[in-house]
Amino acid sequence: MKNSREPAAFKFRVLQDIHQAVGRSASVQDALQSALNILQEKYSIRSGAVLLRSEEGDRYQVNASVKLPPEVRSRSYRSGEGLVGRAAESGRSITIPQLSREPAYLNKLQTRSASGGREQSLFIIPVKQDYIVHGVLVVALAYRRDRDYETTEKFLYMAASALLLPVLLHGETEKLRRELDRENRFLKQQLQEEHRFDRIIGSSSEMRAVYTQVEQISHASTPVLIRGESGTGKELIAQAIHYNSSRNGKAFVRVNCAAIPENLIESEFFGYEKGAFTGAVSRRKGRFELADGGTLFLDEVGDLSPMTQVKLLRAVQEQEFERVGGTETLKVDVRIVAATNADLESLIAENRFREDLYYRLNVFSIYLPPLRERKTDILLLADHFSLKYGRIHGRTVKRMSTPAIDMLMRYHWPGNVRELENCMERAVLLCDDHVIHSHHLPPSLQTAESSDTASRVSLKQAVETYEKELIQDALKSSRGNRRQTARLLDSSERIINYKIGKYSIDVDKFRS
């Protein structure tokens, strides 16, 4: 061993080497092991170990070591148990000049036989910050009568202080890992809950048939083709299939085939190798590789070019591909769910879509009906969206007026559910009395040209129509009580009775 009376410059260089090694290390394990290796090489320690506190905080486990028997490396020590536990519990260093004279404390952390029978000195230094012990540094040195044990203990204490940063980093890393694990499990559970097919809004017979199909196909790996107009919720159905399947723990990867340029779509699907083309500075995984074990959703698959269809066919059929610029064939396990609003049969007849790819994708077909064909779902969806955007924008919407309901039900909804959602968000933002009225709805629902619900009228007719709607809405609130209706409209019961007769309003239908 280096003489304990070496000048301070020597010890400073050792500490400096430890600090540099710790700073260069890629992981906590590497940092601690590097520090012990330097102490072994330059300070001639016989054996050593760094023990870190467990997640529960009541045990200390060897994390890095030099010249420790396997049975010692694998065990852990409770706080207060043996020398290590006593030092950890008290937060004070323990120095034993002659280990053989302390037989009661030979807790198998270090034995004379492990060092060839030579007498040893033992130093146990807590690694702590603000009275909190995060770990313990244990070092065994050859026994020397002339050793200045107080100076040696101070030096090892400074070495232990150099280990504080990686030890704290280890604790923070473990804490962050646990938090991320909990958050990951929570988010996965939320996704599964959110995309359960029975959470999809719609109770019409057409949608119940869709739910049955989703339930039947979810647990298989069969390719699915979802068909329907734009805005009907094809991606929502694709997510329901994925999150209700055995693949829900893996990725759901979406590709909008219509939004990717022709010259980039192959690299998007299959990835590329470094140097495959100008700008490819590193290897990149494609969507097929990212979806391995999970589901790949090909949205608007009818917009793919014929050349891309050829390359896609092999990947779908054989589940293998090569990255752009690469020669290695990669195998994947991906479930394909495709969606389109195009008439693929017509595209096949025009030689714009490959027939073999069509049959490969169309193993199980699900048709989503447009909103105009399931009128009974309109109010359910409207209520859902009004609640959703009421929470988002901090608005309270209690109900929709009768004219607004009539307008929603008469409209033909060319944009389907997506258009209805946008319509309800606008209405929630404009709503100022907790009631969505007809004038809160978009102009497209209120014009004869787009909704086919009204004809051109004079000012007198428009005023009468508005007056009739106000009376009907008040009658609905008062459950057909004419006197209460008059008070709601700040009018007299005689005038209200006159207007009811004038507009031929059936009061009985409001009594319930």
What can you tell me about this protein's structure?
The protein is 46% helix and 16% strand. The chain is built from 21 helices and 17 strands. Helix 1 runs antiparallel to helix 2, helix 11 crosses helix 13 and helix 14 packs across helix 16. The radius of gyration is 37 Å and the shape is elongated.
Tell me briefly what this model is.
It contains 21 helices and 17 strands. With 512 residues, the protein is α/β, with parallel strands linked by helices.
Shape: elongated
Please mark out the parts with pLDDT under 50 across 5 or more consecutive residues, or reply none.
Answer: 104-116
Q: What is the strand arrangement across the widest sheet?
A: 3-2-1-6-5-4
* CATH topology description of the largest domain: Rossmann fold
Helix content: 40-55%
What number is the mean pLDDT?
A: 84
- Largest sheet descriptor: 6 strands, antiparallel
Number of domains: 4
CATH architecture group name of the largest domain:
3-Layer(aba) Sandwich
Q: From the helix content, strand content and strand pairing, which structural class follows?
A: alpha/beta
Q: Which homologous superfamily in CATH is the superfamily of the largest domain? A: P-loop containing nucleotide triphosphate hydrolases
